Amino acid sequence: MTDFSVLHHAYGTAENVPALLDRAATGDQEAWTELWSSLCHQGTSYSASYAALPHLAAMNNADAVLLAAGIIADGGDETVRAEHATSITTLQATASALLPDADEDTYSYLLEGLLVLEGVLDAADVLSWGMSDEEYEVECPECETPMYIVIGDGVSRTEEDEERPLRPADPAKLDGVGRRVCETADAHGQSKAVRVFRHFFGQATCPACDTEFTVSDELL
Questions:
Q1: pLDDT tens across 76-112, in order?
Q2: Which of 87, 105, 197, 214 could join 53 via S-S bond, C-beta 3.0 to 4.6 A?
Q3: Confidence grade of residue 119 (pLDDT, cut at 50, 70, 90)
Q4: Which of 64, 112, 70, 111 is nearest to 91 (CA)?
Q5: Are residue 114 and residue 15 in the same domain, yes or no?
Q6: CB burial of residue 27 (10 Å; 0-12, 13-18, 19+)
């Protein structure tokens, strides 16, 4: 049994983690908030974070998958992945089982969490930004002009309100993670996610210098 009192989290000793995990397992959302703050504070993981992975794997719910993915995204090196391979495999299976019935708000986070747990993505929230805000902030790779990728309006837009149309990707012409997320979301009937992902892996034009670039290249 893990002695959390000798481990640490964002606020010091992790002796309170077992009680928080017990409360979280009953659906206590306040406990989940405290766990996120302690174990994945501003995206940073700690010794207690990794020790919590087997406990999260045993919970079999979306909250556990998302927190585990956040922990792995920050510090999931080969040593951590090897030590917690069983827990990570269990969490992957949980994410896969939950995806088909996930609501629109949760879907992209779960899919992103699955990709992080698989080692496909390093960032645990970049895809889901577009789902919540339908907007990304990037810089032109050529002239470094800041701009917004405004998915709802289908344009790239500078702060001076110059615009150029976006060109969403054709999922059939994508490969790798782009094709996978588009096809997975489509299979699950997640039309908004498909639209966001097509723009994420699609093309944009800088309104300032007319340089064309792939949006995901500037975000991943």
A1: 788 999 999 999 999 999 999 999 999 998 999 999 9
A2: 87
A3: very high
A4: 64
A5: yes
A6: exposed
Tokens of 103: 């609501």
Give the predicted TM-score (pTM) of the model.
0.90
* Same domain membership, residue 137 and residue 117: no
Q: Tell whether 23 and 106 lie within a shared domain.
A: yes
Residue range of the domain that includes 59? 4-124
Copy the structure tokens of residue 176: 């790798």
Distance of CA 67 to the CA centre of its chain: 10
Q: What is the pLDDT of residues 13-24, one digit of tens each?
A: 999 999 999 999
Q: Do 22 and 98 reside in the same domain of the chain?
A: yes
Question: Coil, strand, or helix at residue 144?
Answer: coil
Which of helix, strand or coil describes residue 174?
coil
- Please identify which residue in the block is written with the tokens 């944009």: 204
CA-wise closest residue to 121 among 191, 52, 73, 85: 73
- Return the SS3 of 25: helix
